[in-house]
Amino acid sequence: MSRKIFVNLPVENLNRSTDFFTTLGFEFNPQFTDENATCMIVSADIFVMLLVEPFFQSFSKKDITDTARSSEVIVALSADTREGVDELADRALANGASPHADPQDHGSMYGRSFRDPDGHIWEVMWMDPAALEG
């Protein structure tokens, strides 16, 4: 059985978040989209559910993390090339994201990170395929 991953993130403004991630090239599944949530497609088996905060709160008795003060999760995405890392991070920053940390360059591994408009941390990483082989 192939497992799927659904990351659930609270958002303040669903339209703003959907617009932001659309500019990054993501698509959304209309079957799982309404005024409370949308399903962002990352890959065939990975999805991010963007849930308006009151709807997100209905799934948990805990407070929603104040992303201006705390980190709840870092979502890491792979890129096919170093240039792909820069392209996605630059597009995010040009469309309302803020930088999270300095770029990390370890030769065979390169990454950049940003905070989306709701403050969630996204890291884009590339790893040299030759380094993975040996």
TrEMBL record:
It comes from Streptomyces axinellae. It holds the Pfam family Ble-like_N. Transmembrane segments: none annotated. It comes from the Bacteria. Residues 3-127 form the VOC domain. InterPro entries: Glyas_Bleomycin-R_OHBP_Dase (IPR029068), Glyoxy/Ble-like_N (IPR053863), VOC_core (IPR037523). This is VOC family protein. SUPFAM superfamilies: Glyoxalase/Bleomycin resistance protein/Dihydroxybiphenyl dioxygenase.
